[in-house]
Automatic annotation (TrEMBL):
The chain crosses the membrane at residues 68-90, 138-156, 162-177, 184-208. Coiled coil: none annotated. Keywords: Membrane, Transmembrane, Transmembrane helix. This is Exopolysaccharide biosynthesis protein. It holds the Pfam family ExoD. It comes from Elioraea tepida. The keyword Oxidoreductase does not apply.
Amino acid sequence: MPPPEAGEHPAQAKAEPRRRASELLLDLARAWPAERISVGELLAALGDRGYGLVMLALALPNLIPVPIPGLSGVLGTPIILLALMMLAGYPEPVLPRFIRDRSFPRAGFEAVMLRAEPWLQWLERFTRPGTLRLPNRAVEIPAALLIAVNAVLLALPIPFGNPAPALAIVLTSVALIEADRRLFLASILVMLAAIAIDLAIVLAIIGLGRAVAELL
């Protein structure tokens, strides 16, 4: 083993390069031994890495168009609870048993991660890790509130309503994982825009329903 370079601390020479979220999630999906993954198992595998990575894993399948029936209902509710726990100041994510027992196919999760990996890697190239001070309640409170609202919209059966809140949660999760101030501020704007988009869809559906009712 070559000696560390001059001026380099031995611990720094031995330190492994920091693994990005895209690599961690794809490796997890590929190495999973069972045919299904429960929310609780996913939480156990990723929970020690904080809220950001768990919410990213739960939000990505709602953004990437891989047909997994009922997925938004399975994964939307845990995101709501995780956001509320972040809002309450829980240091680590914890979920009730009936949520932890919900599961989805491992093959579908791997397909999502395979399709998401190049996009996540592209996003990660532009991040500036460490520019956002965490933990920080001034950051976590507004993020948790907006994530909770977007997760509610994600869990509701709104036609064409999943992509906007899913994208918003993905961006916010990456911002929290990387502690990137610029991406975090952008994600706040995207979360607000996603709420506006889904509300517009709901209002349009209500208006269309009233118009049809008047014609009958």
